[in-house]
Structure prediction request, 198 residues.
Amino acid sequence: MLPKRTVTEYVKEYALIILGSAIYGVGFEFFFYPNEVLAGGLTGVAMIINMLTDLPVGVMNIVMNIPLFIAAWRRFGLGFVIGSFTGMAASSVFIDLFSLLHWEATDNILLAAIFGGLLNGLGLGIIYRAGVTTGGVDIVVKFLRIKYQYLNFGTLMLILDVAILAVYALIFNTLEAAMYSTIAMFVVSKAIGVVLYG
Prediction:
């Protein structure tokens, strides 16, 4: 039987989730978004929808995640869903809150890809370190891993992110922005690795 967790452990976990979400929001809203560098996962899909419709990225991210969380609740349990929903909701709220500032850290797309990637990866790494995810593609990959166990988590994430990037490049006919987005995703993955594994 697993030991009961203390209030302090819960507070620490959710403090990490909020901190990581805020850092993720900074990287997205002040670096990625103004330079049209696509974020990975469902946030990237929400960004594409925003470019086409002007609907808020954070709101769209929450809406698209709801059916995934319902499915995850049935399969992976309430504990995983509550923590991950907090991470997804907090990061989405920070994205939309920071968008009200109408500020960009740089208009250099390469710097935006690198430093936005560092901040996004740092934020996600802190959230993952708390033992949860930000939902979206992470949940999709968990389901795919049930069927395709020979593919590792990172490979499946990469496949889905590349597919989202391809759609982005085709819709907006912007191969160069997609290339910079690839650099950003690489930096994000490396930053996550540093936070999680040192």
User: Anything to note?
Assistant: Helices lie at 7-32, 41-53, 57-76, 78-99, 109-129, 137-147, 153-172, 175-197. Residues 117 and 186 are 8 Å apart (CA to CA).
